[in-house]
Specification:
Structural class: mainly alpha
Shape: globular
Order of helices and strands: HHHH
Largest sheet: none
Strand content: under 5%
Number of strands: 0
Length: 88
């Protein structure tokens, strides 16, 4: 995300709100982890839908988390959350 006011916004920053960008980031992180763990249900469209639902749930659960300001580590949290969903 562009936080320097002197630089032009990127196409993603122009197209998406901050909550939408955060959701996209969580979806991407979950999908990356799923690929690394060779997770698949046999139906890729179902898997994508699950990743989106899981990301939205993760965002709801962590709506008040201030990542990077204490002991909360985003990557550890999203990995633990996603692995729990994949193993459910």
């Amino acid at each position: 995300m562009n936080t320097n006011n002197t630089l032009p916004a990127t196409p993603v920053e122009n197209a998406l709100s901050q909550p939408a960008r955060r959701l996209c980031e969580v979806v991407a992180d979950i999908a990356f982890l799923a690929g690394a763990k060779r997770y698949h249900s046999g139906d890729s469209r179902e898997d994508v839908q699950h990743f989106i639902e899981w990301a939205a749930e993760f965002e709801r659960v962590h709506a008040s988390t201030a990542w990077g300001t204490g002991e909360d580590d985003y990557l550890i949290a999203v990995e633990a959350f996603a692995l729990a969903k994949m193993n459910a």
